[in-house]
Amino acid sequence: MGMKCVGVDVGGTSVKIGIFEITGELIHKWEVPTRQEEGGKYILSDTAASILKTLKELNIPLEEVKGAGLGVPGPVMPSGYVEVCVNLGWRDMYPEKELSEMLHGIPVKSGNDANVAALGEMWQGGGKGYDDIVMVTLGTGVGGGVIIDQKIVAGKHGLAGEIGHVHIRDDETESCNCGGVGCVEQIASATGIAREARRKMASNDTPSVLRAFGDNVTAKNVLDAAKEGDALALEVMEVVGHYLGLALAQISMVTDPEVFVIGGGVSKAGSFLIDILFKHFDKYTPISKNKSGIVLAKLGNDAGIYGAARLILD
Amino acid sequence: MGMKCVGVDVGGTSVKIGIFEITGELIHKWEVPTRQEEGGKYILSDTAASILKTLKELNIPLEEVKGAGLGVPGPVMPSGYVEVCVNLGWRDMYPEKELSEMLHGIPVKSGNDANVAALGEMWQGGGKGYDDIVMVTLGTGVGGGVIIDQKIVAGKHGLAGEIGHVHIRDDETESCNCGGVGCVEQIASATGIAREARRKMASNDTPSVLRAFGDNVTAKNVLDAAKEGDALALEVMEVVGHYLGLALAQISMVTDPEVFVIGGGVSKAGSFLIDILFKHFDKYTPISKNKSGIVLAKLGNDAGIYGAARLILD
């Protein structure tokens, strides 16, 4: 048997854990609940106990484990220091050091969860076979991660890959959670797509199946209707595609990745979404015929455990 | 005596050459004319002959030269392949391999000149002491270079650092050289600043010292007048600062450098320009108080030879 590695993705509700061959095959995955009480002080010990128990059940001695990676929902300094993780109650700690001690000293490396998910997609997902990718996760919000030469670019202030907070839309009036106005997240997240649909319904009389949903319309409703040719839904997706495609074009003039990997719930719309994005991206990158591709993520919610496991392999 | 390295910056008019200590001190610099005839076939041999002659004059044996770096005015593939260099007449060649042979086999590494200049500023210029910078050169056009972990990010299609061709201005109607519309280069280059001044003069009646220059107004006129408080010149610089500051904000959400280094002729306006840029950059990065700084480049036209010499030290 070859060496193994462990990937841990800490979320606000549950901690996802996976055991992998170092060649990338997932051997076993499971979850433990995230206990947020008392500043999240039990999260790492619960995780460590569960890892040790599971390794034992699978007859994998700790000597066969190269190490563990840890995806954290907040900024992680290069030293492993975490100043604050709002969702977990963590403050002022070195989670990778703590987890390593709880796992009898095996190496542990940590990173921001969005960046770690991008690394996972590069390793075994939609970005497999590429060294340089930018991942964009279109969920409730918009997250991102930049990978260059198979490594996470975290940025000097932990802001690299904050694609959701690229200012892109000048005519936006509502504020974004970040304190800005007109961020990518406000238009290309599931929340943003639904809001754009509500705005379109309010501002014009185009007949649409979306009107039946009223203010409860979701991004999925919009994408399903757009695929069926619904005129208003297609208008919404043109606006979304315009701004997100433009943002990808801007990013490609900065790091010029081999591919953009699009993940998150909104990406379930598949090639229909990719085609809209590429059309607008292509329009804003006339400088060269050779340009980044846009592909779908493949790992879904497992991207985090894959990427965390990959962290330890450098 | 310690080891030396050579930096070569090939331009359309002259080839700049510098001999450096590997610790970064410039020992000697000079230029040779760029002979563009016959597809630029003499450029490298002229350069090599001049380097060998100068080393001899300086009593530096070739054994003390660690290698040479070569900045090329066009895209360079990771293999060193150059498909085309319009300004030089070069096509389909490996200049680093050719130059190495002409220099009796010492190692030669090449890179795009804008990227190489950024590396130079990181090594011994405005970005000295930082590992991660983004350089923006505001000259006739707008060039750029992205350095992460002291290395050039060239991009998979040679487009990384093409900051000048980030689309930023939706209400622009003229086309950019790249085929796009509304690029950073169209507003923040010396050419762009002068054009914006002509537009402002044509579209309003604000009294201004710039009116004396009429259609011959230059970016320097605008910056000089703005520093003196000229209302119309300040209007122009607010527009320029808005768009360039916004572009820097977008870039900082991608790679989050320690500092942006601003070079080129326009940067001679000094801290006056930096303050305007930072004001707008700061406005579009509300997500964190910890953010990139903006500093002036220091090496002027020598950035290319510094960066080329640095190329060989990895």
Which fold does the CATH topology of the largest domain in chain A refer to?
Nucleotidyltransferase, domain 5
- Tell me what portion of residues of chain A adopts beta-strand conformation: 15-25%
What value does the average pLDDT of chain A take? Answer: 96
Distance between the termini of chain A: 21 Å
Q: Which percent bin holds the helix content of chain A?
A: 25-40%
CATH superfamily of the largest domain in chain A: ATPase, nucleotide binding domain
Major sheet of chain A: 5 strands, mixed
CATH secondary-structure class of the largest domain in chain A: Alpha Beta
* Computed Rg of chain A: 20 Å
Low-confidence spans of chain A: none
What is the number of helices of chain A?
10
Structural class by secondary-structure content of chain A: alpha/beta
Question: Which term fits the overall shape of chain A?
Answer: globular
CATH architecture of the largest domain in chain A: 2-Layer Sandwich
Question: Which pair of chains forms the biggest interface, and how many residues does each contribute?
Answer: A-B, 43 and 43 residues
Number of strands of chain A: 12
Tally of structural domains of chain A = 2
Query: What's the SSE pattern of chain A?
Result: EEEHHEEEHEHEEEHHHHEHEH
**Order of strands in the sheet with the most strands of chain A?**
3-2-1-4-7
Oligomer state equals homodimer
